[in-house]
Amino acid sequence: MKSSDSLPTRGRPRTQDAASRRQVIIESAYRAFVELGFANTSTAEVARRAKVSKRTLYEVFSDKQALFAAVISEHRHLLLDLPRPEDEQCALDESLFRIFRLDVSEEQSLEREAILRLMTRESILFPELSDYLYETRAVSSREMLMDWLQSTASEKNLPLDDAAVYAGMLMDVVFGALMPHRRVADFREKQVIAEHIKRRIQITLRGMGWLPA
């Protein structure tokens, strides 16, 4: 007779399968939303791409809005790399370069552009969807950046009049430049844009009193 130590652990494979299935659904939905848009993406199409039944999909996500929110939440690391490692030691401007992922590869740059365009496009077309993203905290980039600014100011004894204003200003500086009016296909040009963003961040930090003039 086998000892209790040699008996298989029940429940763990099922949990792993559920997590894997959820991940496959999210990734399939992401590709569908990017390609077709929110309005033209049906749950049936997502289920087909994920190779699951609609019933299985609805066991994981209550509706298409919840699925879209999960997609955005899953990919928000492409926009802001937060929180930062506790033992990170670097200059303040370098920290923000890393937070805003300004030195990513060409593949990562394309992924970030896709999620930015998806969020921007669908928020304009469906304002209620944008509201839902914020209500469910699928989008919390601004709040996370505010937390970083507040903790950094406290730790380094730096001036911080209004974390919300500075967080919004930094995000406008970065994402306003990352979403140009025309599509930039040349990665070298994107790298030039990233260098311009770095200079703008440094100018902003000097205005905040976080870098020497």
From TrEMBL:
Residues 19-79 form the HTH tetR-type domain. Pfam families: TetR_N. Residues 42-61 bind DNA. InterPro entries: Homeodomain-like_sf (IPR009057), HTH-type_TetR-like_transc_reg (IPR050109), HTH_TetR (IPR001647). Keywords: DNA-binding, Plasmid, Transcription, Transcription regulation. Residues 1-20 are annotated as: Disordered. One of its GO terms (molecular function) is DNA-binding transcription factor activity. The keyword Transcription applies. This is Crotonobetainyl-CoA--carnitine CoA-transferase. It comes from Pantoea phytobeneficialis.
